[in-house]
Amino acid sequence: MSIILEHVSYTYQPQTPYEVPALTDISLEIREGEFIGIIGHTGSGKSTLIQHFNGLLKPNSGTVEVDGLQTTAEPGTLKRIRQKVGLVFQYPEHQLFDETVYQDIAFGPVNLGLDGDQTRERVRRAMEMVRLDFAQYKDLSPFVLSGGEKRRAAIAGVLAMDPRYLILDEPTAGLDPRGRDEIMEQIRDLHRQGMAVVFVTHSMDDVARTAQRLIVVSQGKIVYNDVTGQVFAHHAELERIGLDVPHVMKLMLDLRAKGLKVRADILTVEEARREIARVLRGGDA
Fold first, then answer.
1. What is the pLDDT along the chain (285 residues), one digit of tens a residue?
2. Distance (Å, rounded) from C-alpha 114 to C-alpha 138?
3. Which DSSP category does 65 fall into?
4. Cβ atoms within 10 Å, residue 80
5. Of all helices (H) and strands (E), which one includes residue 223?
6. What structural domains does the chain harbor?
7. Helices (H), the chain
8. 85-88 and 165-169 beta bridge pairing
């Protein structure tokens, strides 16, 4: 089971004076159960790319398949694809609209034709997955929730569709540090429960702590697609195309520049602590 893109290209407003190429010859596979980060500078094509995963955008050339179903197929097939691939846009709380949290999260299951009991179970399970207590929150207006709670409720609305793949565009954008940490921990929880997760982010620290695989997009093309640590090993090239590296890696590079023989491929604070202690104990400076 996987999402497969083969030679996908996409242009906005093709064959007009406003034509803008967004993706060029993208080939990519996202396998069931993976945890993938996507990074790239503003305008690189990241958001255009993920909107192809559930057929919201369809390629001008090439193909996109989700578990063997092509996004260019008939509308009934596209509906099945969108049940499999949940897409959470940036600032999803702006899409909250109903009178209660329950009704908002239930919107998708109701439109799938689920009965009352099935819908209630979907809503309850989705709220549990984002750590919103069902009894406490179900009858509240979504507009009285905190910023982080609104975002969790919006994500729950996607989870209530019972997707196999969860795609998130900048899931921590605009949140305070506590809210960012809570959302990232909940996303990690969803992955631990077996869901494939793909998230677009500008936070190199979030992606370093979380993503197993990292895809770098620049000017509509995939520049790197590898294990996260291997991608950040190309730090000079990443900086050349306008991307940063995690703060911990910056620290290790600075220490190496000052003569301390630490590894530079360190991505987390705990790894850095162990590596610095190892070098200092051994007098390897």
1. 899 999 999 999 988 999 999 999 999 999 999 999 999 998 999 999 999 999 999 999 999 999 999 998 887 888 899 899 999 988 888 888 899 999 999 999 998 889 999 999 999 999 998 889 999 999 999 999 988 888 899 999 999 999 999 999 999 888 888 888 888 998 999 999 889 999 999 999 999 989 999 999 999 999 999 999 999 989 889 989 999 889 999 999 999 999 999 988 888 888 899 999 999 888 654
2. 18
3. E
4. 13
5. strand 221-227
6. 2-234 (3.40.50.300), 246-285 (no CATH)
7. 46-50, 75-84, 101-111, 116-129, 134-137, 147-159, 177-192, 204-210, 228-232, 235-240, 247-257, 269-282
8. parallel
Could you tell me the two tokens for 189? 């929880």
Q: Structure tokens of 99?
A: 């009178």
Q: Which two tokens stand for residue 281?
A: 């104990």
Length of the chain: 285
At 115, list the tokens. Answer: 């009965």
Q: Which two tokens stand for residue 105?
A: 């999260």
